[in-house]
From TrEMBL:
Acetyl-CoA binds at H145. It comes from Pigmentiphaga kullae. InterPro entries: AcTrfase_PglD-like (IPR020019), PglD_N (IPR041561), Trans_hexapeptide_repeat (IPR050179), Trimer_LpxA-like_sf (IPR011004). Belongs to the transferase hexapeptide repeat family. The record marks D137 as: Increases basicity of active site His. Residues 3-79 form the PglD N-terminal domain. CDD domains: LbH_AT_putative (cd03360). It holds the Pfam family PglD_N. The active site is at H136. The keyword Cell wall biogenesis/degradation does not apply. This is Sugar O-acyltransferase (Sialic acid O-acetyltransferase NeuD family). GO terms for molecular function: acyltransferase activity. Keywords: Acyltransferase, Transferase.
Length: 210
């Protein structure tokens, strides 16, 4: 029996659990969340303890994934779990389309209707959310979140822990720096540096997010 532990039982964590259940690869799915013991379940899935408990027990599970939406927290928590001996799982919803010639690193999740095309590389602890598209040869660094409906044309590069907003579009061959935020519906037609928050059509700097 394959057992999956998810750290974080909030909204994103429940979507991760739902995708894992839909994949039919896991016979047992459980949460660990610091809301325990006040909260002991989320929907059909039990909460067995907090983060400290998972660090103690992580080697007992066939896979562990961090279901926390905040990029830096998700990535750092994944690294902490690996250091404790956890085997990071990759969760891909059965209605996502991922090329056999793309690479998806451990700890990442790809939700329904998302597309990852040939030559793309998805780093560790990334979220490719519902209906997001990653075209050929895109390079997505660790801890990135592509929100629902975000569209990356071919050859786009996204830096560590950046966040691409819902329905944002990025032109081919554009580079987005690390820890950047691209706002909802933004149209990115020029490179964006580290730490920027860019919004609008065409996307322009709002402020520095670091």
């Amino acid at each position: 029996m394959k057992r999956l532990a998810i750290l974080g039982a909030g909204g994103h964590g429940r979507v991760v659990a739902d995708a894992a259940e839909a994949s039919e690869q896991w016979q047992e799915i459980v949460f660990f969340d610091d809301a325990w013991p006040e909260s002991r379940n989320k929907g059909p899935w039990p909460i067995l303890g907090g983060q400290t408990a998972l660090l103690r027990q992580c080697q007992e599970f066939d896979g562990v994934v961090v279901g926390i939406g905040v990029n830096r927290v998700r990535l750092s928590s994944s690294e902490t779990l690996v250091a404790a001996g956890a085997r990071l799982a990759t969760i891909i919803h059965p209605r996502a389309t991922v090329s056999r010639h793309a690479r998806v690193e451990a700890g990442s999740v790809i939700f329904a209707a998302a597309v990852v095309n040939i030559g793309a590389h998805i780093g560790r602890a990334c979220i490719i959310n519902t209906g997001a598209t990653v075209d050929h040869d895109c390079q997505i660094a660790d801890g990135v979140h592509l929100s629902p409906g975000a569209n990356l044309a071919g050859g786009v590069t996204v830096g560590v822990c950046s966040w691409i907003g819902t329905n944002a579009g990025i032109r081919q061959q554009i580079s987005i720096g690390a820890h950047a935020v691209i706002g909802m519906g933004a149209v990115v037609v020029s490179p964006q540096p580290d730490g920027i928050t860019a919004v609008g059509n065409p996307a322009k700097a709002l402020n520095r997010s670091t």
